[in-house]
Design a protein that fits this description.
Structural class: mainly alpha
Helix content: 55-70%
Shape: elongated
Distance between the termini: 37 Å
Radius of gyration: 17 Å
Number of helices: 4
């Protein structure tokens, strides 16, 4: 069993996994932007172009997929509704009100 399986397991709720996936999506967006900037700077200076693996993009994508694929215990109706609401708010670019 990998270290990953000790951290994210079937006891992790769908809501928690959705939160982690969203955080990783934000991280990959920032890292992608950093790669774009670093590439432009390297090109302007005539330096070696940075590699994608230098920014951990593959690792972030892999982890995001793994988290999304972890089976969880059946959510209660309330948990399922909260997860759906959270995903709806996330996809619309809004935060769920507290």
């Amino acid at each position: 069993m990998s270290a990953y399986n000790h951290v994210i397991d079937s006891d992790t709720s769908q809501r928690e996994r959705a939160f982690l996936v969203e955080a990783l999506e934000l991280l990959i967006r920032e890292r992608s932007n950093a790669l774009r900037i670093a590439t432009a700077v390297a090109k302007a200076r005539g330096d070696r172009m940075p590699e994608v693996r230098d920014f951990g993009l593959e690792d972030i994508l892999r982890l995001s997929r793994q988290i999304a694929e972890v089976p969880s215990a059946e959510p209660t109706d309330r948990q399922s509704d909260a997860s759906q609401q959270s995903l709806t708010n996330t996809s619309a670019g809004r935060r769920k009100p507290n």
